[in-house]
Specification:
This protein is an alpha+beta fold and 284 residues long. It has two domains: 97 residues, 2-Layer Sandwich (Phosphorylase Kinase, domain 1); 179 residues, Aminoglycoside 3'-phosphotransferase, Chain: A, domain 2 (Alpha-Beta Complex). Helices cover 43% and strands 16% of the residues. It contains eleven helices and ten strands. Helix 6 crosses helix 9 and helix 10 packs antiparallel against helix 11. The radius of gyration is 19 Å and the shape is globular. The mean pLDDT is 87.
Length: 284
Amino acid sequence: MSNTAFAGAQKALEAAGLCTLPRSWQRLRGGRVNQVWRISTPDGALVLKRYGPLQGTGLFPNRPADEAAALAAMAPRGLAPTALGQSLDPARPWLIYRYEPQTGPLLPEDAGRVLAKLHRSPPWPGLPQDGSTRWRSDPRAVQKLTGFGLSRAALATLRAGLRMADASPRQLCPLHGDPVPGNLLATEKGALLIDWQCPLLGDPIWDLAIYLSPGMQLRYGQRPLSRSAQRQFLQAYNAPKIARRYQQQASPLHGRIALHLLGQGRPARAALRAEIALINRLAR
């Protein structure tokens, strides 16, 4: 860490009432927009998160205030780490929370159970409503997917599905908004969700689609889930009606993920092709 970053981290610790000098820190992998460090202190290990560009992307906004509110609401339920301090200064927002050691990879059934618990929780004050405008897709952008292997049949199915999904009623509940492999941890306290910067009150099938997405799995260094693992996840989620709605709307859901990956450029090409392969299978 640079001297400037060191001084900024020390000021953040002091502002949070943690005035002891950090013994060491380690940059944590996984964050694509924000910088995250594990800080060792005499009071235990902490995580310091310094936010990058606050606009985020269309599907995945980057909102420090929403993350602070989510941790305050979800940590008592065992779904999020405990926040110790934060600054919402737009010039340099940051968050400090208690570090939870991982005990191993999170199994699909554990992911299903933790998302089910979240989706059955009451919404907290200030949770952004639905965000359905995030899901609207430019028809010209959809056409671009054919250049990466989207079949004609899948294109027709996807366009029809996007129109229906925009008009379909939504069952609203708290969503994490980004339950990718790097944001789901297995800890001694059980499964835990981190990186809550884009929560919303929306349809639970969106969280299911993000977790089940082969492209998002690849983007976070994991193999796409096998069909067996997908079944284990949905069985542990234990909401057959929601699972059926996900399956009925899988094409537009994964189409929106594909459009997000398209916007990520060359580094996301393998993930994009995996997502398109899924959409092609859904159209058969």
